[in-house]
Amino acid sequence: MTDVAPHRYGFFTDTSICIGCKACEVACKEWNEVPDDGFVFLATSYDNTGSLGADTWRHVAFVEQDGRWLMSSDVCKHCTHAACLDVCPTGALFRTEFDTVVVQPDVCNGCGYCVPACPYGVIDRRRGDGRAWKCTLCYDRLRGGLEPACAKACPTESIQFGPLDELRERAEERVGRLRADGVTEARLYGESTGDGVGGTGAFFLLLDAPETYGLPPDPVVTTRDLPAMWRWAGGAALALAAGVAACFLRRN
Amino acid sequence: MPKRRDETVPEAEFRSYYGRPVIKAPVWHEPHMPVYLYLGGMSGAASVMAAVARVTGHDRLALAARVAAAAGAGVGSVLLITELGRPERFLNMLRLFKPTSPMSVGSWTLAAHGGLTAIGAACAVTGVLPAVGRAATAGGAVTGPVMATYTAVLLADTAVPAWHEALCELPFLFAGSALASAGAALMLTTPRAEAGPARVAAVAGAAAETAAGMLMERRLGLVGEPYRLGRAGRLMKASRALTLAGGLLAAVAGRSRALTALSGLAITAGALCTRFGVLEAGRGSAADPKYTVVPQRRRVAAGD
């Protein structure tokens, strides 16, 4: 893996075996030197980080339901068609040789456009710093032949790192076995290349609807509609020019 | 966890993670972003008016339009730069030209438009290099319409439902508002006897802005709700009232100084309210997971 990677790498997060220990959150913060995300008490279960953000690159969700707990470690999806990357005007966001999406902090000028562009609400601008930050899928560790810090720290192998095609095979097997064992609600999220973002580099096995975990049920990369947007804007621009010309037709 | 809302007629039942937003709200600040949207639109429409006024011999109007276009682009650029998280890196906007990023397209447009309108205004005011000034003003007629409408693509090209789903109407809302704004600015800065085309622009722009806004809110349904609720709703209502009143006044203002001033100020205030309202509606749309989850669920249920 020290050579240029022949594969696309990613995460398979199997939430059915997540125990909510938050070791991933801590390992991520330590390795990437991510600042604290506020010492707050949200009073919603054991979750006191709330959501992914500039200073939270792994986020463990806790959902208390009748008779069961759902726990899930969320992360940047490293989309095939990444809206953040598409709309970044400076080229600070780029696609690496591992097919992951990374911000270059020395280029980002903090325009903030990536923030509302992400269909998952992952990337955010850091207060005081002014730049956009998110999971790098431990780009530095990957280049050094190591697995990302969160996957390394996960005690149950809920977070698995590897070549994406291998992870997809493993996930299919796992979801099939769970369903055969009677866990019929088990489903994969983000594994399909036919979804609105062309499949994600970090995908999940969930035990309930995605929105239960704070994930969008049918995310679409906003730039898919960009040609239509420019067509409508072009029409409006022409109408404006014609309108101005018409204003001068009338003599007064 | 099921969540119920009773503030709207079609009650949308959906699940969420403790009611937390799915997407992040736009981080853009007030007043920088909305005032830039206003100034960019005004400058864009004014530059087209400058070019047409010059060609058709409305010299006094052309001078005012050239100055207004340059001032709008200049002040707008400063607002945009101070809006950045790292203002000292604003030149990174021109590191590359990226067609998939409306902000990159917009940065280049603003750079070209700002330069052309500044040259046009400088030559018109000082009287030096008149041929260069004429060429620059003619160029402004090309960059102007892009300036006035690219900002609609900028907002629509996000995951914010109230913006993304409005991709058809937002450009017409902004173009109409830009025409009205430029008309208003020129009514206020041109002697009334020579401001006829500006008054027509104010009336036509106000009508177009009102029509596009009404169409947008009607078509969007649930996703358009943030344009009607809370602070965004108040701003959009104020915008509608001010724009309509200003447009009607402009139609009858004729040569009355007081009515012209009142009309120009009302239209300007209305255009500003539109931009503040649209930004606020985007924030509201992002903050409530309902607007993200319910339409996506419906899409899944409909089998795409």
Automatic annotation (TrEMBL), chain B:
<dbReference type="InterPro" id="IPR005614">
    <property type="entry name" value="NrfD-like"/>
</dbReference>
<comment type="similarity">
    <text>Belongs to the NrfD family.</text>
</comment>
<keyword id="KW-0812">Transmembrane</keyword>
<feature type="transmembrane region" description="Helical">
    <location>
        <begin position="141"/>
        <end position="164"/>
    </location>
</feature>
<feature type="transmembrane region" description="Helical">
    <location>
        <begin position="105"/>
        <end position="129"/>
    </location>
</feature>
<feature type="transmembrane region" description="Helical">
    <location>
        <begin position="170"/>
        <end position="189"/>
    </location>
</feature>
<dbReference type="GO" id="GO:0005886">
    <property type="term" value="C:plasma membrane"/>
</dbReference>
<dbReference type="Pfam" id="PF03916">
    <property type="entry name" value="NrfD"/>
</dbReference>
<protein>
    <submittedName>
        <fullName>Polysulfide reductase</fullName>
    </submittedName>
</protein>
<feature type="transmembrane region" description="Helical">
    <location>
        <begin position="35"/>
        <end position="56"/>
    </location>
</feature>
<keyword id="KW-1003">Cell membrane</keyword>
<keyword id="KW-0472">Membrane</keyword>
<feature type="transmembrane region" description="Helical">
    <location>
        <begin position="63"/>
        <end position="85"/>
    </location>
</feature>
<keyword id="KW-1133">Transmembrane helix</keyword>
